[in-house]
Design brief:
mainly beta; twelve-stranded antiparallel beta barrel; 58% strand; globular; disordered N terminus
Length: 322
C-alpha cells in the first residue's frame, strides 16, 4: 500500500505538472550579424569591392502539447536590417528594414525507433504573406509539408535528412507592382498582357508555384558545449510559366515549365555558453549548383567562382532558447 500510495502521488504530481498552463510554452530568439564576402574582395578603390552588412532578428514562440511525439504549434517572424548594402541586397532603398512572412508551424508528430537509433518527424507550415516580396508576388498563402529522419549512432555524431514540399497560392503568375507606389510608373502597353488593370503592372518576372527542399545535415559534438554542423540544402523551384524552346532560345535552354535550382551550404561552429544561450560563428554559400553553361559543378562549401558578389556570407549569431 505504501508503494502504491507513493506511485499514485507521483502520478498525480506529474499530471498537475503537465496540466500547468505554462508547462508547454517556450521559444527561441536569434540575433544575427552577417558580412558578405564582397566586403573583403577588391582593391579598395570602391569599384570592385561590394560591401554588405546586415542584421537579422528571428522571433519564434512555441507551445508544445505533447513533447514525446513533438505535437506543437509555433510562430516565426523575421526582421532584416541592412546596415551597409549594394546591388546584392535587393533593397529598394539604402539601409532598409524588411519584415518577413509570418510562419505558422504545426508539429504533426515524432516517432523514435531506439533499436535503430532513428527518429522520424513530420509537420506542416502556413506562410502568411506579410513580406514585401510575397506581396509583390500577389501571394495569398503558402503551404508546406515536411518530414525528417535523424540517425544518431553515437552521442557525439548525428545525421539528418529533411524533405519538404511547398505549394504557393497567388493571384497572378508574375510579380506585380502598383504604379501608385512608384515615383516613376512602370511602362506598360495599352491593352497589353502586362497591364492588369487597377494601376497594377506585371513585371514579367515569373514566380514559384511549388518547390522542393532537400536538407542533409551532419553534426559533430565530441567536445562538451561545442558542436560543428554541416548543411547541404538543395532547392528546386517550379514557376507557373511554361516556355516552348524556339530559334531565339539559348542553346543551353530546355523547353517546358520554368525551373530553377539553388544550393545552400552552411558551415557552423556553435558554443553553448549557458543552457539557454548559444553563440554561433560560420558561413553560408548560396549559389547555383552548376556553372552558367551547366558543364561543371561549383564547389558547394566555399565560393570560388562568383567574384565579388556576396554569394558567400559570414555570420555571428546569438541564440536564446527558453
Amino acid at each position: 500500500m505504501l508503494i502504491s500510495t507513493v506511485a499514485m502521488a507521483a502520478e498525480e504530481a506529474t499530471a498537475k505538472k503537465k496540466s500547468s498552463p505554462l508547462k508547454g510554452f517556450g521559444g527561441t530568439l536569434i540575433y544575427d550579424n552577417t558580412l558578405g564576402k564582397g566586403t573583403f574582395t577588391g582593391s579598395g578603390d570602391g569599384y570592385s569591392s561590394r560591401p554588405l552588412w546586415t542584421m537579422w532578428w528571428s522571433i519564434r514562440p512555441k507551445y508544445t502539447f505533447i513533447d514525446e511525439v513533438a505535437l506543437a504549434i509555433s510562430l516565426r517572424f523575421d526582421i532584416t536590417k541592412t546596415v551597409i548594402d549594394n546591388a546584392d541586397s535587393g533593397n529598394s532603398r539604402n539601409r532598409q528594414t524588411v519584415f518577413g512572412d509570418i510562419w505558422l508551424n504545426f508539429g504533426a508528430g515524432k516517432l523514435q525507433v531506439k533499436s535503430a537509433n532513428l527518429t522520424f518527424t513530420a509537420g506542416t507550415t502556413l506562410f502568411l504573406p506579410t513580406s514585401l516580396e510575397s506581396r509583390a508576388q500577389s501571394k495569398i498563402l503558402g503551404l508546406r509539408f515536411s518530414g525528417s529522419v535523424n540517425y544518431e549512432p553515437v552521442k557525439w555524431f548525428s545525421m539528418l535528412y529533411a524533405f519538404s514540399f511547398t505549394k504557393n497560392f497567388n493571384r497572378f503568375t508574375n510579380t506585380v507592382v502598383d504604379n501608385s507606389d512608384l515615383d516613376i510608373a512602370q511602362v506598360s502597353r495599352s491593352g497589353g498582357a502586362e497591364s492588369i488593370g487597377g494601376g497594377l503592372v506585371a513585371t514579367g518576372s515569373g514566380i514559384t508555384e511549388w518547390g522542393l527542399i532537400h536538407d542533409l545535415h551532419f553534426e559533430f559534438s565530441w567536445l562538451e558545449k561545442f558542436s560543428i554542423g554541416l548543411d547541404y540544402i538543395y532547392l528546386q523551384n517550379f514557376s507557373y510559366n511554361n516556355f516552348a524552346k524556339n530559334d531565339q532560345s539559348s542553346p543551353y535552354a530546355t523547353g517546358g515549365r520554368g525551373y530553377s535550382d539553388t544550393s545552400w551550404t552552411i558551415v557552423d561552429f556553435t558554443y553553448q555558453v549557458l543552457p539557454y544561450l548559444g553563440l554561433s560563428l560560420g558561413w553560408m554559400v548560396i549559389q547555383e549548383p552548376k556553372s552558367a553553361d551547366n558543364k561543371s559543378v561549383r564547389f558547394p562549401f566555399w565560393d570560388f567562382s562568383n567574384g565579388a558578389s556576396n554569394r558567400q556570407t559570414f555570420y555571428l549569431d546569438v541564440t536564446a532558447s527558453f
